[in-house]
């Protein structure tokens, strides 16, 4: 069984990494297609969508595992939420 500290660490880091990967996918899509994506969304959009949705339960689990020390996790939680919003906002910004 996974140690609780390791689970907390993974739940803290995974959403940040997932958001960064999603942002890289948006940038790669813009480089490849510009602001005119193909009619079929392509693999980038599908992976992006999976990453963005999969992050939400992990962030929720992170908060639940650390509910007794919310002040301590605020910087990590803030980074998770900020990067999620940046990745989602990049799609809107580039009109993809």
Written description of the protein model:
This protein is mostly helical and 96 residues long. The chain has one domain. The chain contains three helices and no strands. It has helices at 4-33, 42-65, 70-93. The N and C termini lie far apart (42 Å). The mean pLDDT is 90.
Keyphrases for this structure?
96 residues, mainly alpha, 81% helix
Quick overview of this protein structure:
With 96 residues, the protein is mostly helical. The protein has helices spanning 4-33, 42-65, 70-93.
Low-confidence stretches: none
Work out the radius of gyration: 15 Å
Determine the fraction of residues in helical runs and give it as a percent range. Answer: over 70%
Percent of residues in β-strands: under 5%
Q: Please outline the major beta sheet.
A: none
Number of helices: 3
Number of domains: 1
In terms of structural class, how would the helical and strand content be classed?
Answer: mainly alpha
Distance between the termini: 42 Å
């Amino acid at each position: 069984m996974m140690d609780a500290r390791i689970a907390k660490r993974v739940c803290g880091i995974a959403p940040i990494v997932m958001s960064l990967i999603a942002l890289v996918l948006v940038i790669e899509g813009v480089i490849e297609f510009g602001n005119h994506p193909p009619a079929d969304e392509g693999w980038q959009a599908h992976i992006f969508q999976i990453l963005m949705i999969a992050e939400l339960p992990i962030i929720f689990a992170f908060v639940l595992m650390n509910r007794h020390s919310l002040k301590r996790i605020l910087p990590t939680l803030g980074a998770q939420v900020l990067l999620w919003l940046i990745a989602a906002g990049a799609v809107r910004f580039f009109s993809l």
